[in-house]
From TrEMBL:
The entry's keywords: Aminotransferase, Pyridoxal phosphate, Transferase
SUPFAM superfamilies: PLP-dependent transferases (SSF53383)
Keyword Repressor attached: no
Organism: Ophiostoma piceae (strain UAMH 11346)
GO biological process: gamma-aminobutyric acid catabolic process
Chemical reaction(s) catalysed: 4-aminobutanoate + 2-oxoglutarate = succinate semialdehyde + L-glutamate
Pfam families cross-referenced by the UniProt entry: Aminotran_3 (PF00202)
Protein name: 4-aminobutyrate aminotransferase
GO function term, MF aspect, one: 4-aminobutyrate:2-oxoglutarate transaminase activity
Cofactor(s) required, per the database record: pyridoxal 5'-phosphate
C-alpha cells in the first residue's frame, strides 16, 4: 500500500515537472496533501512558482549583499506568509519545511498560541524594558523560570543558567567546569584566591590562568563558533581556520555500521575502542580535562550516532575520574528525538552534570544541580544580558503547547512512520541513495547518506520540500514537532521523485 501510494505520488510529480515553464505555478505535489491539525490556515501542499532563487529573491539578495553577507542564504523568506510547516520565499514559492531553521522551530511558523504569548503585557514589557538579568532581573523572574524552563529541566537537574545562544550556553558550561575544578584544586568551594593567582591571571599566566586544563570533545563534534566552544568543534575546517585555538584533546567518536542489527559485534567493539581512548586522554593528556562534552547525535558532523551503552560508558568514566559530563542538547533537545531530551534514551544511572540547550527551546543556557557549579563569587559567570526574558516567556508557551498536544509522543509516532517508509520502500527501490539510514526510534531526527548529496537536496527543494545536509554526504531531516503523517507523505513523495531522476 505504501509503495503504491508513493509510486502514485511520484507519477504526479513527474507529470508536474514535465509541464512547460508557463505552467510552473501549478503545485509540484498535486496528489499528496495535508492540512495541519495544529495551525489553522496552513497550505495543503507545496506550490513552486519559480526556480530557487526566483527573480524577486535574486534582486533582493543582490541588493542586500551591499550591506550584509548573503553567501549563506538558502531561502530569502517572507515570514508574513509562512505558516505552520510551510515556509514561503520572496517569489511566493511555498515549501514544506522539513529543516525548520536548522532544527530551531518547534511549533511551526505563525503559531497562534505563541502569537497570544507575544501579545501579553509581560512579553511587551520584557521587549521594551529589556532587563540586564544579572543586575536587574524582573521581580517575577523566579516564577518565569519555574513555570517554564525549569518545568522542562532534565531529570535530576533543578537549576538553570540562562544564556543567549547555543555557543554561549556551551561557553558558560565550560567556564563553570573550569571554575569548579580549580576550586577543588584550591582546597574547596569557600577557599579564596591567593594574591599570586589574582596577579598572574591578569597576564594570562598560571596559577591564576588555568592553562593546564581542557575540555575533551570528539572528532566530528560541533559545539559552537565562539572561542572556547570553537576549540571543541571538530566538524569542518571552515569553522576553525585562522582562529587561535586551545590545546585541548579530541577522542574518536564511534563510526557505526548499518543496519545496526547486522553489525552488533563490530559496533560494540568500535564503541569500546572509543571509550578506551577517552579514558587514556583523561588520564594522560598534558592539559587535564575538567569535562567531557558530547552531543547525543553529532548533528553538524554528519548525524553520527552511538548506542545508549556507549554514553553510559562515558558517564561511568567521568564519574570514575572526577571529570564533569556535559551533554550538548542544543540541536537534539526539546522533543525532536521522540523524548524531550535525547539523553533520556540512555537510561543513565546518574544524570549528566550539565545539559546545554538552545534551538527548539528558543531560549538558551545550561541545566545543572550541583551548587558548586555556581561560582563561589559574584561576577565570575556574568554578562550584561545573561539570557533573555523574552525567550524564557516564549519557551513557557512552547512547553505548554508541547504538553497540551503531547507533541513528544506525536513526534515519536511520526518519526517511526517516516523511518519505516524510507527503510522499507525507498531504500530497497533506490539502492545506494538512502545509505546508512539512521535514527530508528529517534523521532523525526533522521538522516541518510547520498552519493550526490548536494544535487539531491537541491532537487528536493525544487520539488517544494526544504531539507538540509551535514557532514560530507549526509541528508538530514529536521521537521517541526507539529509535522504530521500527511506532511511525511509529501516529503516521501519528493524524496522518491528526486531519487528516480
Amino acid at each position: 500500500m505504501a509503495s503504491r501510494r508513493l509510486l502514485h505520488s511520484a507519477k504526479a510529480l513527474s507529470l508536474s515537472a514535465a509541464r512547460p515553464a508557463v505552467r510552473r505555478s501549478a503545485p509540484a505535489l498535486t496528489s499528496v496533501r495535508a492540512v495541519s491539525s495544529f495551525v489553522a490556515g496552513e497550505p495543503e501542499a507545496p506550490v513552486m512558482k519559480t526556480s530557487l532563487p526566483g527573480p524577486v529573491s535574486k534582486g533582493k539578495i543582490a541588493s542586500l549583499d551591499s550591506v550584509f553577507d548573503t553567501r549563506n542564504i538558502s531561502i530569502l523568506t517572507d515570514y508574513n506568509k509562512s505558516v505552520g510547516n510551510y515556509i514561503v520565499d520572496a517569489d511566493g514559492n511555498v515549501l514544506l519545511d522539513a529543516f525548520a531553521q536548522i532544527a530551531s522551530i518547534p511549533l511551526g511558523y505563525a503559531n497562534p498560541a505563541l502569537i497570544e504569548v507575544a501579545k501579553t503585557p509581560a512579553m511587551i514589557n520584557a521587549i521594551v524594558s529589556r532587563p540586564a538579568l544579572g543586575n536587574f532581573p524582573p521581580e517575577d523572574w523566579e516564577e518565569v523560570l519555574k513555570t517554564g524552563l525549569l518545568r522542562a529541566s532534565p531529570k535530576g537537574l533543578d537549576k538553570v543558567f540562562t544564556a543567549m545562544t547555543g555557543s554561549d550556553a556551551n561557553e558558560t558550561a565550560y567556564k563553570a567546569a573550569f571554575i569548579w575544578r580549580r576550586q577543588q584544586e584550591r582546597g574547596g568551594y569557600d577557599v579564596d584566591f591567593t594574591a599570586e593567582e589574582m596577579a598572574s591571571s591578569m597576564n594570562n599566566e598560571a596559577p591564576g590562568a588555568a592553562n593546564g586544563l581542557s575540555i575533551l570533545s570528539f572528532k566530528g563534534g560541533f559545539h559552537g563558533r565562539l572561542f572556547g566552544s570553537l576549540s571543541t568543534t571538530r566538524s569542518k575546517p571552515i569553522h576553525k581556520l585562522d582562529i587561535p585555538a586551545f590545546d585541548w584533546p579530541q577522542a574518536s567518536f564511534p563510526s557505526l555500521r548499518y543496519p545496526l542489527d547486522q553489525f552488533e559485534a563490530e559496533n560494540a567493539a568500535a564503541e569500546q575502542a572509543c571509550l578506551a581512548e577517552v579514558e587514556s586522554l583523561i588520564t594522560t593528556y598534558h592539559n587535564k580535562p575538567a569535562a567531557v562534552v558530547v552531543e547525543p547525535i553529532q548533528s553538524e558532523g554528519g548525524d553520527n550516532h552511538a548506542s545508549p551503552a556507549f554514553f553510559r560508558g562515558l558517564r561511568a568514566l567521568t564519574k570514575k575520574h572526577n571529570v564533569l559530563f556535559i551533554v550538548d542538547e542544543v540541536q537534539t533537545g526539546v522533543g525532536a528525538t521522540g523524548k524531550f531530551w535525547a539523553h533520556d534514551h540512555w537510561d543513565l544511572e546518574t544524570p549528566p552534570d550539565m545539559v546545554t540547550f538552545s534551538k527548539k527551546a528558543q531560549a538558551a543556557g545550561f541545566y545543572y544541580t550541583n551548587p558548586e557549579l555556581r561560582p563561589n563569587k559574584a561576577y565570575r559567570q556574568f554578562n550584561t544580558w545573561m539570557g533573555d526574558p523574552v525567550r524564557a516567556l516564549l519557551f513557557k508557551g512552547i512547553f505548554e503547547e508541547i504538553e497540551k498536544h503531547d507533541l513528544v509522543a506525536h513526534t515519536a509516532r511520526v518519526g517511526d512512520y517516516l523511518f519505516g517508509e524510507i527503510e522499507k520502500t525507498l531504500a530497497p527501490k533506490f539502492p545506494g541513495q538512502f545509505e546508512n539510514l539512521r535514527g530508528k526510534n529517534m523521532g523525526t531526527f533522521l538522516a541518510f547518506d547520498h552519493p550526490k548529496r548536494d544535487a539531491f537536496v537541491k532537487r528536493v527543494k525544487e520539488l517544494g520540500v526544504n531539507i538540509g545536509g551535514s557532514g560530507e554526504a549526509t541528508v538530514r531531516l529536521r521537521p517541526m514537532l507539529i509535522f504530521e503523517k500527511g506532511h511525511a507523505d509529501i516529503l516521501l513523495a519528493a524524496l522518491e521523485k528526486a531519487a528516480s531522476e
